[in-house]
Amino acid sequence: MGYITIDSSTSSTTVLVFDDSLNVLKRFQKEHKQIYTKEGYIEHDLEEIFQNLIELVKQASLLSPDPIFISITNQRETFSLFKKKTGKPIHNAIVWQCTRGQKICDNLLSNKELTQTIQKKTGLQPNTFFSGSKLNWLIENNSEINSKIESEEICFGTIETYLIYRLTDLESFVTDTTNASRTLLFNCLNNKWDEELLSIFNIKNIQFPKIKKSSELFGESDFEGSFNKRIPIIGVAGDAQASFFANSCFKKGDTKITTGTGFNIQTNIGEELLLDDKSFTSLAFTNKQNTYALECLGSFAGGTISWVKNNLQLIKSVNESEEFSMEIESSNGIFFVPAFSGLGPPYWISSARSAFFGINPAVDKRHLTRAVLESVAFQMIVYLEFLQKSKNLSLNNLSIDGGMIKNKFFTQLIADLTQTDVNIPEIEDMSSYGVLLLGIQHLHNITNLNDLEGFRLNHKVIRPKQNKVTQTTYDQWKLIIDKHFIKNQH
Predict the structure, then answer these.
(1) How far is CA 393 from the centre of its chain?
(2) Which residues pair with 233 in a beta bridge?
(3) Are 239 and 9 in contact (CB under 8 A)?
(4) Which structural domains are found in the chain, ordered by start?
(5) Please, what is the angle between helix 302-310 and helix 365-391, to 10°?
(6) Which of 290, 332, 449, 477 is in Cβ range 3.0-4.6 Å of 250 for a Cys bridge?
(7) pLDDT tens-digit readout, 315-345
């Protein structure tokens, strides 16, 4: 028996096989191409992603030939357009990182009334992360797409919608609330596609999928003959929300930091859609009703350490960033501001760029490396401080997942600066575990989320220490931001 999960992410597809006790038996993974068009836009080949999924599930089926159900998590915001009659795409998937909708977003942001309408219904502001502006761009700039929309039944769907439609032989045209909430076309108050939002983005004659809660049945499939019967697909959510669920962020103030190339911070704010100009408001999950989270997105976390390794060549491996940082007592007066694509929340200074401060003759590569690693944590802490003050939230349950949990210096830094216990789960694939839990919730008809506590993964706890050096360095880092970046704005 057991379970299988599918994670269709930005760069690859990962399939995990779990036993009946929810232990990972094996992990299968395959990358797919990143397609950069001549304009520099980013796309994915949907057929490649689908075939990779089938290949990996067939391998997984040898270990688990009769899974109880299969769950799916996916890269958010990336969307597809496909024919209802055949399920065939009429264009490559447009990836969340793609900026082709920037001018459309800029025009909307210049109109306060429209921006407020969008934010009140979605919790989001116009941004090229989300699907709406890029779908609008495609309609306005691709006459072939436009004619197909007018002459045929064309369906819109984020990645999981397309995959499920294909997997179920065109029977299930569905999405869940977490994925729908990242399109700018979905009303997060009533959980419906919104005619006013569709009109703002000039979208018509396109069919949109049926909305379900993440913990429902989404269809059945034999996965192109991988199994000798149709397996239920239960548990579907966008990757960030899935890991939020996996980390048991069920109460107000519960916070999760996911680290990868960039980082994602989500904080549970309860069942009221609170709006904030300094961060996005996400629909975190839907149980009896919606639970919302304030969300902070950063483009550089692990990517900053990769830059130190690949571009500056100060370290030979990412592990050395931890080793160097622990060899010395401080960064010796060196500070780094990680603003490769501007200073993110709560500052939001898009024109800012990265810089070292305080270089002196006693500095060596260890100090530079430690200063960079500290800055990765500092940009997260300064946002969490802002959140606690502006929303009067306390960090009840702080979890960190993703690649940087291996770095003990980094995780201790977060604990020391927040003076909060930091929970580190035993596996990195928390998005996969999250949709598995959503499937378990359906399987056992669990309505009280506290009853899922028994399924929570084992995790180690990083206890905070009183660290004067760390606190002083952080305070000085904030003063540098204030002096060289904030005051320069006025």
Answers:
(1) 22
(2) 70, 219
(3) yes
(4) 3-240 (3.30.420.40), 248-425+458-490 (3.30.420.40)
(5) 160
(6) 449
(7) 888 888 988 888 989 999 999 998 887 887 7
